[in-house]
């Protein structure tokens, strides 16, 4: 069975080592994990998640009377926070999730990417997606990279023609370095081809699958006083209990199938054929 997220991590390490624009990324602080995504459904192939943002400024929700415009009630003060993820005492700042099997079945044909990669094989579409997500990591501050407009101001949209053009340039730059085919070869195969070749496709996920670490809301303790110009009923926040600290104990391998996934028990050994061949050699 191929460990797909492990292969992706190795490839991403190679990319940041060969592409100067991405060389600031410390892959020890980036976690790659898998989520479910059907090939026939609409949705993202991959997503970059920032989990190193500082807590938000305190705030509260409020409700107004529709006729008078006066505040009728407000919530408690709260902040939003990023969960902490540490693997073997290494803090994680970003996570990149890949949807399986959707990511594996990407094609250049009939997509915007086809225009930029004329004559290239279909698997380059997957390489474009990987570079795309790495490019989202901001080199200067915690968060997702902000893109500049032509006048030098920042756009609220993190995508745009310049973003896509930069990704294409970095993909071509990486390919020009002639990377080891052993690192990129797994991208050449569809999900079904990988399943037939390796006996299955495994990936790291969180034990609470399909949940994964996300920003959460926390009521302030003690509560600040109400603003001087606000006098209304205060509603307690009804917050779900969430995990705020994750470690390697919260990770598990899953066997991804065409129509779902299942957790792989600790008694089942996962041996990537490439690794077993390396051991035999």
**N-to-C SSE series?**
EHEEEEEEEEHHEEHHHEEEEEEH
Strand content: 25-35%
- N- and C-termini, Cα separation: 19 Å
In the residues, how many domains can be counted?
A: 2
Query: Can you list the strand order of the major beta sheet?
Result: 1-12-16-17
State the secondary-structure class: alpha/beta
Oligomer: single chain
Radius of gyration: 22 Å
**Unreliable stretches, pLDDT < 50, 5 or more residues?**
273-281
Number of strands: 17
What is the arithmetic mean of pLDDT? 90
Q: Helical region count?
A: 7
Q: Give the fraction of residues assigned to helices.
A: 10-25%
Shape: globular
Biggest sheet details: 4 strands, mixed
What this model shows, in words?
This protein has 281 residues and is of the alpha/beta class. The chain has two domains: 2-52 and 93-213 and 247-280, no CATH class; 55-83 and 215-243, no CATH class. It has helices at residues 4-18, 113-116, 124-135, 161-176, 181-184, 191-198, 273-280, and strands spanning 2-3, 30-37, 46-50, 62-64, 71-75, 78-81, 84-87, 90-91, 94-101, 147-148, 154-155, 201-206, 216-219, 233-235, 245-246, 251-257, 260-263. The strands form six sheets. The protein has a four-stranded mixed sheet. It has a three-stranded mixed sheet with strand order 2-9-3, with helices on one face. The chain has a three-stranded mixed sheet with strand order 4-5-14, with no helix packed on it. The longest helix is centred in the middle third of the chain and has 16 residues, at 161-176. It is globular, with a radius of gyration of 22 Å. It starts with a strand and ends with a helix.
């Amino acid at each position: 069975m191929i460990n797909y997220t492990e292969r992706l991590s190795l490839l991403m390490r190679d990319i940041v080592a060969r592409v100067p624009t991405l060389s600031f990324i410390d892959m020890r602080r980036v976690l790659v994990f898998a989520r479910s995504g059907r090939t026939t459904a609409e949705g993202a192939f991959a997503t970059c998640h920032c989990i190193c943002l500082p807590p938000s400024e305190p705030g509260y929700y409020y409700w107004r009377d529709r006729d008078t415009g006066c505040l009728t009630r407000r919530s408690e003060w709260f902040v939003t926070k990023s969960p902490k993820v540490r693997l073997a005492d290494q803090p994680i700042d970003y996570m990149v999730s890949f949807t399986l099997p959707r990511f594996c079945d990407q094609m250049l044909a009939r997509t915007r990417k086809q225009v930029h990669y004329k004559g290239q094989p279909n698997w380059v579409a997957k390489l474009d997606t990987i570079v795309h997500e790495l490019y989202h990591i901001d080199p200067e501050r915690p968060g997702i990279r902000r893109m500049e407009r032509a006048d030098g101001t920042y756009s609220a949209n993190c995508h745009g023609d310049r973003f896509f053009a930069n990704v294409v340039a970095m993909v071509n730059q990486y390919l020009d370095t002639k990377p080891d085919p052993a690192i990129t070869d797994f991208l050449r195969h569809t999900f079904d081809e990988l399943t037939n070749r390796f006996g299955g496709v495994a990936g790291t996920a969180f034990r609470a699958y399909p949940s994964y670490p996300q920003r959460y809301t926390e009521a302030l303790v003690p509560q600040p006083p109400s603003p001087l110009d606000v006098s209304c009923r205060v509603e307690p926040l009804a917050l779900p209990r969430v995990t705020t600290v994750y470690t390697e104990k919260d990770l598990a391998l899953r066997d991804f199938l065409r129509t779902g996934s299942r957790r792989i028990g600790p008694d089942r050994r996962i041996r990537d054929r490439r690794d077993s061949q390396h051991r035999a050699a």
